[in-house]
Amino acid sequence: MDLSFLTGSGFDTATPGLVTLLVLTGLAAGFIDAVVGGGGLLQLPVTLMIPGLTPVQALATNKMGSVFGTATSAVTFARRIPPDPRTVLPMALTAFVAAGAGAAVAALLPAGVFKPIIVVALVAVLAFTVAKPAMGRVTELRHTGARHYALAVLLAAVIGFYDGVMGPGTGSFLIIGLVSLLGYSFLEASGKAKIANFATNLGALVVFGAHGSILWGLGLVLGLSNMAGGYVGARTAVARGNSFVRVVFFVVVSVLILKLGWDVLTGR
């Protein structure tokens, strides 16, 4: 079966087996992203398996799939846990701009520059969360007024830029920032993180699209599977509550530490 329309001219034909793997990975990534973020840890390596793709093309196409998934999970969360627009809208706008800036320099800065820093940050995040078992069980905002909104925008700017440059764990970083800095519960933080994460994906996608790096057919396949996974993941998170989100958060962050730590040790 000729599936070359998914990757376009100039690339080897995508096999049915590989496309099936991409669909299953997109479903799993969409589910994980909807709950705590980190789906790119699964999706990006599989996208890189497509013959002939450059890392930038794989990252760009991965973003297209993630846009569909985060949009679906953001809407699903918002319908059940309405977010405060005074917090999420400035965050989303800032994240959009910052992610676009990050994507613009993605081809200039190798991921190896960031990975050791990210591993240290993830270990600190995991240790901090374990040390404070009551953190994130209920929403107890630590700041009010201008300080609250300023911290939300700063968080969106930093994580948005990181998502444009590299990406894995963006949703997890957003959640832990909203929980630890602002005082949201894990469930509320996850819902707000989806809106900001959608904006980061969209901002990066606009830049990648302008550069012609997106494989649209492949991105659509990933997008549709991400939508399905994101819908199921968001509904599951809302139904299961904070304890479920917290457990999945621990698992995803631990896997991120192992994966990125291995990359640092092996020089990948």
**Quaternary organisation:** single chain
How many distinct domains? Answer: 1
Please describe the biggest sheet, giving its number of strands, its sense, and whether it closes into a barrel. Answer: none
Distance between the termini: 34 Å
The residue-averaged pLDDT reads 83
Short characterization:
By secondary structure, the protein is mainly α.
Please outline the helices and strands.
Elements: H1 16-35, H2 40-47, H3 55-80, H4 85-105, H5 115-131, H6 145-165, H7 170-182, H8 186-210, H9 216-240, H10 242-266
GO cellular component, one term: plasma membrane
Protein name: Probable membrane transporter protein
Transmembrane segments: 20-42, 88-111, 117-134, 146-162, 199-224, 244-262
What do these coordinates show?
The chain has helices at 16-35, 40-47, 55-80, 85-105, 115-131, 145-165, 170-182, 186-210, 216-240, 242-266. The protein has one domain. By secondary structure, it is mainly alpha-helical. It is globular, with a radius of gyration of 17 Å. Belongs to the 4-toluene sulfonate uptake permease (TSUP) (TC 2.A.102) family. The chain crosses the membrane at residues 20-42, 88-111, 117-134, 146-162, 199-224, 244-262.
